[in-house]
């Protein structure tokens, strides 16, 4: 016995699916372009059944449509590039024009045919881009010429976002104390937060969905500047296909091979032998810091089968060793032993506040802490501070009295490969894979076990990313085109404190802290108010492994003056395995509230108490200790969109 679903039920199921696609207007990814327009004769009358043929000048890719009864034509989902558009009609001369189609552009070209024979060809010289009445978006296209000819610091292509009106981009730096130090492509547009932008790479979602942007970029993949063909920044993404985020939509297209053979090899070198010593190093008698930047690579693109199959490969390597000046405050020898006496202070040109014994409420004799009152745990921690090696630029011997030239490193290998294939007039297929491997080390103020790193953006970090996209455009007919994309992105980020590999743990110094190899070597971050600190950031180590599979499909249908577009995106699944919690090795804070004099309201009297004294007595003002744990986040998401671009006939 056969089981079947009644036709009425089938219609209901289809209706529900279409309703979902119409209502769940989140986004589809766009890396192609469209071209439409009107064909008329010299009198302005429409010309039906005229043949419009566009040919990509680099790859030979050709598409042909005919104008409808109203003289309109529409070509959807065209690969970007330089095209030759030819319009032919019976009794008219052939009209030919060069047309440039940029990423995500809804281009319009209206043609006026001249009376003549079919053997005559009229060349039309376009004067700049025409404004399209079909799209209300405001966008800026940054083309290949700008990308290739603009000098870029560290060759980051997203620095070119600065040329877009309304964009304010953060300056790239390794030295900021914020967790955003070292990020690229961090920009606001028209006041919208940088995390609200939408990055699209070759038609797939290229946004990081990790916790706290540990990848140092809001882009999952960050290809070399030599890979970028062009990108389009839409600052008011009104179309339904850009409904993911309220900020800018940045649609990026990578290069592919063409019918011509192209190759590039380069090397950029900066060496500290050509640099003068900096002022801080000279002032403190330090040797000139190292400053070597080396970037090298190349690419090659060529036809495998003319007009059919093309290949492109790019490699870029970056090796940076950069000296960074570190100025910190470390305790003087007398401060380590608890001697804050007037005589010692006078000899050093200092003035210490009066310290009080919390057990008696009276000042310590001679403003000195007895040796038998010293806390052995804190004495062991304070001994990790290096000795002062500078007078200090604040006028006090116990402030900014330690300087060193540390060495920052930033090494990256970036690979990109792409294949484009046109097996027939109705099919266009491409595949692109990008892989990047980066190691980055930003040293702390003190170095070694003491470390002295103020932010989890410093330390040693390993970053890897994978990005794969498969695209297939199929032409069902002159008015029906389908565009499919499969995308896979995976990021790996692991950041650790400088002394992670040292076999000395926080539990070796502070009783009660578990000795756990998973959080590595180092001591609790220990802070002395108004002075300095030692130890490593409490958010290190941290790691994230976000990954997503994405399926996009867009169907474009042209009917009369309407250009309908239906689309859906499936994420199956989005997953993030991460570890990012504070205080895994514990942290300690000393402020001087225990060695101060108390008034009748039990408040500290000004000019009394010292954080170093609290520390030597082992009287902690603040502390924390967190268990180590990993979080596994998973999300399945289905979204759809629908839009109708109504063609306005002049």
Proportion of strand residues: 35-45%
Summed up, the helix count is 7
Going by helix content, strand content and strand pairing, the class is mainly beta
Ranges where pLDDT stays below 50 over 5 or more residues in a row are: 1-29, 126-131
Assembly type of the chains comes to single chain
Amino-to-carboxy terminus distance: 61 Å
Biggest sheet, open or closed, and with what strands and sense?
A: 10 strands, antiparallel
In helices, the fraction of residues equals under 10%
Instruction: State the total count of DSSP E strands.
Output: 30
Shape: elongated
Strand order of the largest sheet: 17-18-19-20-21-22-23-26-27-30
What's the rounded overall pLDDT mean?
82
Instruction: Report Rg.
Output: 33 Å
Written overview of the protein:
This protein is mainly beta and 650 residues long. The chain is 8% helix and 41% strand. It has 7 helices and 30 strands. It has helices at residues 7-23, 144-149, 279-283, 333-337, 342-348, 376-382, 611-617, and strands at 33-40, 51-56, 62-66, 72-78, 81-88, 94-101, 106-108, 111-112, 121-124, 139-142, 167-169, 187-189, 198-201, 204-205, 228-234, 249-254, 262-270, 291-305, 309-328, 402-424, 427-442, 459-477, 480-496, 525-528, 533-534, 542-559, 562-579, 587-590, 622-624, 631-646. A 10-stranded antiparallel β-sheet has the order 17-18-19-20-21-22-23-26-27-30. Strands 3-2-5-6-9 form a 5-stranded mixed β-sheet, with no helix packed on it. The longest helix is centred in the first third of the chain and has 17 residues, at 7-23. It is elongated, with a radius of gyration of 33 Å. Residues 1-29 and 126-131 have low confidence and may be disordered.
